[in-house]
User: Fold this.
Amino acid sequence: MLQRLLLLTAIAASNLLTVQAHGAPAKDLPVIHAQLTSPPLVPPATGRKTPAKVIVELEVVEKDMPISEGVSYTFWTFGGTVPGSFIRVRQGDTVEFHLKNHPSSKMPHNIDLHGVTGPGGGAASSFTAPGHESQFSFKALNEGIYVYHCATAPVGMHVANGMYGLILVEPPQGLPKVDHEYYVMQGDFYTTGKYREKGQQPFDMEKAIAEQPTYVLFNGAEGALTGDKAITAKVGETVRMYVGNGGPNLVSSFHVIGAIFDNVRFEGGTLAQKNVQTTLIPAGGAAIVDFKAKVPGSYVMVDHSIFRAFNKGALAILKIDGPEDKSIYSGKEVDSVYLGDRAAPNMNAVASATQAAAGGKLTPQDQIAAGRELFAGTCSVCHQANGAGLPGVFPPLSKSDFLSQDAKRAIGVVLHGLSGKVKVNGKDYDSVMPPMNQLNDDEVANILTYVLNSWGNPGGNITADEVKKQRAAKPATTNQAGH
Ligand SMILES: [Cu+2]
Assistant:
């Protein structure tokens, strides 16, 4: 309340001081409290034509948050989110920076802002123990979009835990008006467990040193920008995205499937490149991309190092609503081809199955519901959504005699793949199913339980333990004669 009052007073005071000479001493500048936003939101334009003294208050909070469905991670955050709060100032502003470290923190932290001119970018002046606050000032000399991050030893670990964000230094004349501005930031994450392995996952220093991330994510969590959390626009509107890359290790090949960036301020600099398909965003760097929404549908944002998108989580959605324009594009809405198992608008059933499993109360009904969501986009690409398969190419899973002969054998099929001749419902198939061992034990168990209880199959259930045992075993024989 008091803070609000102070803020209002500060704004009122700043309005009184209309004309401000360039280069006025900081003590004469109007005082403004920066409004910070959580991703994917961006604070409004400063709207100022003259410099100000801008007070930024940012608090470091260490907290557990989901990194994927049913997977929890202890993030270290600037402002409670990954990436951290978005800061917006104007070139020529003097920024009075207050860094607080929440009393519940276990670690000291500091901040290095790439928009600062001075040794360490503020790091040396901002070392802050838990329960403390530090303060330093800098003048925003250069316009641009800048990464900030923690630089406390071990630096890589602080960054890997989510300690980065963006600060925009507007040019004196401001940026051209657009209809939407969004804040998207990539990061790579290292957990001791495998991708999507459930439960609390600690940081894995060895994977981080080897630069082998378990997750590559936009905005700190798988699904942070998909389903009902997708960012949105309407046909005819302009969209600007401030896209950062916190790293710590990977360089991002940022791409929006089905869109061309009209303008890219690459590397966050002042020059704009036009008509760009994929823009490279270095670790510790950022870009400003903009484009006009022309055709409705779901646009999938990826790191075009494509295994990161489909197997490590680097996938987000921009949903554009509005009338079709068949003269530009005649096709259909993006489907499971690009969305994969993210095609389901939400994965609630997967999350509740995970919760039930953790509490030892998993029912076959939970498994079936979760399996249905995972089947879409994972198995349905080949076996079809109704399990009917495609004649001569993909065998049916509906009323499959192969499946009902030996339900447990299907575990091996999913984990290790299947090739060679196989007869299903009297028809021969001689093709290849790739191993799908990127799925974890719960996922395989749930998908197969769903399959066993769908389309006239015999029912029953498969447990995660059974999957675990078969994962260690050798590949299933591909020849039916062996059975
Ligand atoms: Cu830190």
